[in-house]
Amino acid sequence: MIRRPSRPVRVLASALVAGALLTTAACSDGGDSAGGGATPTDLAASPLARASATTSTPPARLTQAGAQAALITMTDLEGGWTPVKGAEHWDDTLLVGKVDVAAFLTAKTNAADCQRLLDALYDDDLLGKPTGASALAGFQQGDSRLLYQVAAYNPVRLSAALGWMKTLPVKCDQFTATDAKGGKRTVQVTTASVPTQGDARQGLHVTVQGTTNGEPATLTLDVAAVRVGNDAITVTAGGLAGGAHDSLEQAVREGAQRLKQVQAGKTPAPGPGRTR
């Protein structure tokens, strides 16, 4: 019986044969690079080398100037949206309330997630606190508002935040929150579609039924978060007049492209219809 050589022996034998073939090829060329042999320059210029160099180049770190440049502008939106200053202080009071934990009979942790959602919507930090540059812009159309944010995040925490958002339509499909005066608010959370942009994305549709100035009111918000590398955009659109899903989708499409251009070291062109 003939024993097969062990794997290390077979590997060594293969290496010796390959070395012999290369030596033979070099001798037949006479050592002259003009004979068609691949020079170091040729190898560096090969398609594979170029592709490796391209794919290994990471996106530029988001700077404060880059975050500002990545913000959408009025020309990126349709439908009469106008810029508004002080958007970081909008803080809709219908989002302020304490979740009724007793209503979550089987999963108390769900109550904590729902409280986190309300607080994050109020504080405009749905994805958590940025770890780098950040910027935001606000727009208004009648009684509707659109808040657009772009920021750099810790990649692990960013992925976890998007995963958390995905669970909310199940954990927080409907719950009750109580305001400081004891008033009850009914909150409903469902999944919302988001344009296929960036590396990952998640959308929510949130309604809050309560009272404002003693009158019944319903706050409707369409929310989207899109990860682009280690950066992300977040869009919240809607108000007492209803949601603004069409405008949210347009903001996501235009905004994701602006952020990609900034990451590539380019200056984004304004307005819909930019090269994709």
Task: Provide the descriptors you would attach to this structure in a database record.
276 residues, nine-stranded antiparallel β-sheet, 7 helices, disordered N terminus
What does the model show?
The structure is a single chain. The protein is α+β, with helices and mostly antiparallel strands and 276 residues long. Helices cover 34% and strands 26% of the residues. The chain contains seven helices and nine strands, in the order ααααββαββαβββββα. The chain has helices spanning 7-28, 40-44, 47-55, 64-70, 108-123, 155-171, 245-263; strands at residues 82-84, 98-99, 134-141, 144-152, 174-178, 184-191, 200-212, 215-228, 231-239. A hairpin with a 2-residue loop joins strand 3 and strand 4. Helix 4 (64-70) crosses helix 7 (245-263). The N and C termini lie far apart (66 Å).
What order do the helices and strands come in, and which of them pair?
Layout: H1 7-28, H2 40-44, H3 47-55, H4 64-70, E1 82-84, E2 98-99, H5 108-123, E3 134-141, E4 144-152, H6 155-171, E5 174-178, E6 184-191, E7 200-212, E8 215-228, E9 231-239, H7 245-263
Antiparallel strand pairs: 1-3, 2-5, 3-4, 4-9, 5-6, 6-7, 7-8, 8-9
Helix pairs in contact: 4-7
In short:
With 276 residues, the chain is α+β, with helices and mostly antiparallel strands. Helices cover 34% and strands 26% of the residues. Helix 4 crosses helix 7 (245-263).
